[in-house]
Amino acid sequence: MSTTGSGASGEVTAPYGSGASAQADAPRKRVRIHHLREMKERGEPWPMLTAYDMYTAQLFDEAGIPVLLVGDSAANNVFGYDTSLPVTVDELLPLVRAVTRSVERALVVADLPFGSYQLSPEQALETAVRFMKEGRAHAVKLEGGRRFTPHVEAITSAGVPVMGHIGFTPQSEHNLGGYRVQGRGSAGEELLADAVALQEAGAFSVVMEMVPAEVAKRVTHELHIPTIGIGAGSDCDAQVLVWQDMAGLRRGKAPRFVKRYADLAGVLSGAARAFADEVRRGEFPAADHAFH
Ligand SMILES: Nc1nc(=O)c2c([nH]1)NC[C@@H]1CN(c3ccc(C(=O)N[C@@H](CCC(=O)O)C(=O)O)cc3)CN21
Ligand SMILES: CC(C)C(=O)C(=O)O
Ligand SMILES: [Mg+2]
């Protein structure tokens, strides 16, 4: 682990205590970006999940997930679009507000959607300000490497923390040629240069998506800010998954990097079918469910 960053003093006040024993009933202290840096310095990997609504935000917050991302992946996991591209700021803002209203500890990151920051650093800052003021987000995230360091600088200069995102960047899927691993071979050096540039521009962390594990490991060691992997191997400082993938709510073939920790699709589908059967058989409502 690199220790070149600041905040490496003994005054560590992690909101979940340290080590695997950190529990949901630990002190209810807000997660701050310096806590994430401190976890990197201590070599403690941390989890991040997406959340798009109140109940999931509350549950994940209580489960001790320190960072929640209101992803532009709401496009295909909430709104029913086929890709990330169509979702808008006006669609995402109410989801961000719902999540920030619902958490006590988690740091909430708002993902800037396609078209809301690429035009200029000024546009990027304007959009970031909307997510901070109207969404009450704690940080924003945007996709892209060296070409977007002016955008990152504009936002961080205004006092808003920025999470980067490199490797496979879904908003560029048409330019990248589909869902493909990025950073193989000599592109590994380019990826490292992008990561270093984002760090120098003031990003507080960087997501690496679908990157060879060895490349992600090297980037993680070179940076003093935390790296967050999705399909980037086990040596990143943190790991993120889309919650509907992690909990098995989404059907169909999942990307290779997904692990399913539950079968929510089976549970919910079973509940809906049982309800329907009981209504059709005249078994629901029973006397207990009615007012007399
Ligand atoms: N539910 C969900 N999970 C995600 O991880 C996710 C989203 N949605 N939406 C936005 C982006 C899109 N992402 C994706 C989507 C699909 C693959 C995928 O199909 N991967 C295949 C590789 C396919 C190929 O090589 O052609 C895999 O097996 O990993 C990967 C990332 C990641 N993000
Ligand atoms: C998968 C994560 C990193 C993301 O960008 C999203 O959910 O939109
Ligand atoms: Mg995203």
Automatic annotation (TrEMBL):
Assigned EC number: 2.1.2.11
GO cellular component, one term: cytoplasm
Spans annotated as Disordered: 1-30
Cofactor note text: Binds 1 Mg(2+) ion per subunit.
Keyword DNA damage among UniProt keywords: no
Keywords, comma-separated and alphabetical: Cytoplasm, Magnesium, Metal-binding, Methyltransferase, Pantothenate biosynthesis, Transferase
Location in or out of the cell: Cytoplasm
Binding site for 3-methyl-2-oxobutanoate: D72, S73, D111, K141
GO biological process, one term: pantothenate biosynthetic process
Catalytic-site annotation from UniProt: E209 (proton acceptor)
Similarity comment: Belongs to the PanB family.
Function: Catalyzes the reversible reaction in which hydroxymethyl group from 5,10-methylenetetrahydrofolate is transferred onto alpha-ketoisovalerate to form ketopantoate.
Quaternary structure annotation from Swiss-Prot or TrEMBL: Homodecamer; pentamer of dimers.
HAMAP family: PanB
Protein name per the record: 3-methyl-2-oxobutanoate hydroxymethyltransferase
Species: Prauserella shujinwangii
